[in-house]
Give the backbone structure.
Amino acid sequence: MKKHLYFLFMVFIPCHLYAQPVIYNMENNPMGMVAKFVQCSTTGISPGSSGPGVTWNETALTHLGTANDTFYASTIANYGSTAPTATRIDSFTSTSNFGGNFYVNQSSGTTNLLYVVLNTTDYYYYTGPVTGLLTAKQPIHYTDTYTDTFNYTYVSSSPTVTVNGYYTVNADGYGILNLPGSASYNNVLRIHITEIDTSHDGSGAHLSTRNTYTWYDDNHSEPLCKIIYDTFSSGNSISAYFLLSQTPLVSVKNVNNEKTEFSACFASNGLILNSKFEQGDPYSVSVFNMNGQKVYSNSFKPSGNSVSLNIDNWLCPGIYMVALTDNSTHGFSTIKVLKQ
């Protein structure tokens, strides 16, 4: 059976609540991010209408229970020959023990999916006119739309299944999103994603369609809510999720933010960070090895433009990812640092 990937207004209200939003961080996950989605009952839900100044009321979403929760995390890992151009891995696990890894290239304002592993058995290689499958652009505005075609193969299936199709992203509305628990988000952009696939498994061609409605604001890289409609030759299905939490958050200041531009080096006395620090602001730093494991973290308030952190010399020589966050603005940046 064809498996889909879970990818990641007009009323009288103050004008700032329905100003056209610009989303700078759609799917641009900061390193070390952890997000939790809860799956909900689909009874009585609707994606609502498109257009400007819409209020989407999704307060009827009802949590199905912790057995259906899904966790996402973004890390750096050693890709080897699997996806040598990947810049991060977006991993997901569910409490029902289903999970996998999305190998992603994030560069030049685009997010491209390169390779997928699901439960270590099903493998997907994406190829197309761009490197991988273009899933997001940063920034994105109301009425922006783009389409990418793709091909991929189930490497581990027998007989081999190949899939081709196209993936369209359309920013079709903006306004206010209301979610359970009295959560309300202003300046939200709705993204309608249409994926049409044709799979070939030796018995013929099988057409499937997925329509996904997602809502983004500029404090989160993951969607606040997503409603998914799948249409197969064998029938239809609906699923719905909302974002319970994401840490760290992101913000528009994550783009060209001087506060998070920095350099770093390992020295005999530890890790040295250099930046145009805002003195007295709270910062945090995390260090990841190339297997995606966090090997060090600390928080500090700088008194100058250079900070020395005492890291034990047990760290092996090699390349590490150093992630710096300005906790007052949520500005975030990651660089590679060589330890000799």
Q: What stands out?
A: The chain has a mean pLDDT of 80.
